[in-house]
Amino acid sequence: MGIVTNTTYKCDCCGRESHLKDFNDGAECGWSNITIKGNEGGLCYGGEWGGTNHNIEKFVCFDCSKKIRACITSIIDQIQLTNDEVNNGR
To answer: What is the pLDDT of residues 11-67, one digit of tens each?
Structure first.
C-alpha cells in the first residue's frame, strides 16, 4: 500500500487554488514569485538612525501575475517620466 500526497497551490493574491503549480486551465498557465526586499530609515531627533526592513514574498497565479506586472511596469514608467522631466528642467 502506498501513500498519495496531493499538493495544493494557492495564489496569495486572489486565493485561486490548483493541484498544478502553473495553474493550467487548459488555455493559459503560469505563475510568479513576487519579492520585494529592502529597508528604509532616517535620522531621528536625537541624532540616532532608525528604520525598518521589509521582506514581502508572494506566490501568484498567471492572472494576478499579468495584472501585477502591468501595474509595476506602469509605475516604473511614470517614475522614469517624472525623473526625465525633472532632469530636463520641466
So the answer is: 999 999 999 999 998 898 999 999 999 999 998 888 888 899 999 999 999 999 999
**CA 13 centroid distance within chain:** 10
7 close to 19: Cβ distance less than 8 angstroms: yes
Contact 32, 68 (CB under 8 A): yes
User: So where are the chain's domains?
Assistant: 9-40+51-87
The label of the residue with cell 495553474 reads 23
Q: Which three cell numbers stand for residue 19?
A: 493541484
HSE, CB side, 13 Å, CA atoms: give it for residue 49. Answer: 5
- Joined together, the cell numbers standing for residue 87 give 532632469
Collect all residues with Cβ–Cβ distance below 8 Å to 56 and sequence separation of at least 6.
34, 35, 36, 37
Q: Which residues contact 61 (CB under 8 A, 6 or more apart)?
A: 11, 13, 14, 16, 18, 23, 30, 31
